[in-house]
Amino acid sequence: MAELEKMIWISIILIAIISVKDKIKLALPILLVSAGLLLSLTRLVPSIEMSPEMIFYLVLPPILFDAAWNTSIPDFRKELPKISVLAVGLVFLTTTIIAFAVHSIIPGFSWPMAFVLGAIVSPPDAVAATSITKNLPIPQKLTTILEGESLLNDASALIAYKCAVAAVLSGIFSFRDAGFQFVTASLGGIMTGLLIGFVFLKLHRYFIGHSSAETFAVVLLPFAVYSLAEHLHCSGVLAVVTLGMFLSWNSFSIFSADSRLQMGHFWDVVIFVLNGVVFLILGMQLPEIISDIPVSGLPVLILYGFLIFVILVVIRLIVLAVFPVFSEKSREMEAGFLSQPKKEYLILSWSGMRGVVSLAAALALPLYDDQGTAIEQRSTLLFITFVVILFTLLIQGISLPKLISMIQPAAQDEQDEETLNLLLLEKSVSFLKDCKADGNLALQAIEKMTEKLEKEKHDIFQKEKSQSVTDQILFRKMYYDLELQLSDHQRKELVKSYHHGDFSLEVIRKKEGELDFWTATVRHEIEALEKTMTSPDQ
């Protein structure tokens, strides 16, 4: 009961912080970690213990599943070589270099413990990267690489971590066994995700027509597949990511429109709450972390943490320069000194925030080895990990949006929405022309629909000819604002009718749902338009 009361207070604090977020102008993860630190130091709210099981089995699966679900498979496949360099090559290289640095500069750190720390701090955090770069005007290709890296690097780092921990506990380490474990765990995780996804497709027919049952089943899947993969000694991370991508690829054909809408809204709330609570609790872990460390030793450990942070930044800068992720020479020659590839290089190099997975891995380190001897330097490793996370979030996280604003990378080079609208209209007209009318009424319906679609095509072409890009954007902004005013006016009239008792509550609720859907659609269009207006090309 006490833990439940703590969670209620944490949730109230989370809502209060979010309500003032826009006024403070800080990315939400940074604001929440800072608030958690303040709460831990003032002890206004009892701290909640962040257990590794909570992160690995409750927090990580839904966050990874949601990120995989929203990943473009064609874009991911196109950028896979670059993502692999960052998510596999960079992680293992970082683990090794940090291990050598830690063994050299921190007294008492054995080689196995140094490799444990290297594996812990090597992967950038999926939640931090996507939360901080969300709604920022960066190219789609860069977004795909960042999100793809954050999906896969946890798997590489956790496999390296498990091998290093095994060496700490047993005192024996084998590169051959570690390599074999990496291959088998990775392939096993991918196969587990595909198998569960395929089984779900076969069983899905029993859920047809029950959107609530579909949503509940999809919510349970990430937890189930992660737990199953881990029990099979496979990568739970890769299993969840594979499952998310597999179901996302098939979601257009297996789920109904009602189910997709319901799942979308539900997942938005779940991910929002998880991201918020986990960063707030992360900041509140300070008292527990420093409980076994003498106060006199804290400044030196903070210095070690800062040095590791600097090394992490330098490794990422060098790797991205040596293995050019952006190697479009012609664009570099045309654009001058700060070309588009160089802008993308700077953003990607500075997007290395660490987060909850690193801290959970540090907390999961056992207290004793196989002989029952206490593991030395565990408290030191835990505190240094916390310091590194804070430096990456506070330094890189705060400055990254400012960096993007300063260098202004080009807008997304994807086909714009107007082009997609025209494509769908043309395909729809072609479909209607091939339709066979079964009677006079059917023919009239086809002709009416064809006339409507042709008019929409004509309006788009006329708008493109008669208005500049700036005028088109301003016109759409005014049009959407007018739609919001109309929906608000209709809602007020709806409330009046209900208060006067003119219509039943059932009819009122139905119409209210239609107005809410209309308003949400318009607000979504306005958000997309505002993002276009902030891009440097406009």
Keywords:
538 residues; mainly alpha; 23 helices; 79% helix
Per DSSP E runs of 2 or more residues, the count of β-strands stands at 0
Q: Report the span from N to C terminus.
A: 55 Å
Largest sheet: none
Chain oligomer state: single chain
Average pLDDT, to the nearest integer?
80
Order of helices and strands: HHHHHHHHHHHHHHHHHHHHHHH
Unreliable spans are 329-334
How does the helix and strand content classify structurally?
mainly alpha
Radius of gyration: 26 Å
Helix percent reads: over 70%
Characterize the overall form. globular
- Total count of helical runs of at least 4 residues: 23
Strand-residue proportion:
under 5%
Could you characterize what this model shows?
It is a single chain. By secondary structure, this protein is mainly alpha-helical. The chain is built from 23 helices and no strands. It has helices at about 1-20, 20-25, 30-40, 50-70, 75-80, 80-105, 110-120, 125-135, 140-170, 175-205, 210-230, 235-255, 255-285, 285-290, 300-320, 330-335, 340-350, 355-365, 380-405, 415-435, 440-465, 470-500, 505-535. Helix 4 (about 50-70) crosses helix 11 (about 210-230), helix 6 runs antiparallel to helix 7 (about 110-120) and helix 11 crosses helix 13 (about 255-285). The longest helix has about 30 residues, at about 140-170. The radius of gyration is 26 Å and the shape is globular. It starts with a helix and ends with a helix.
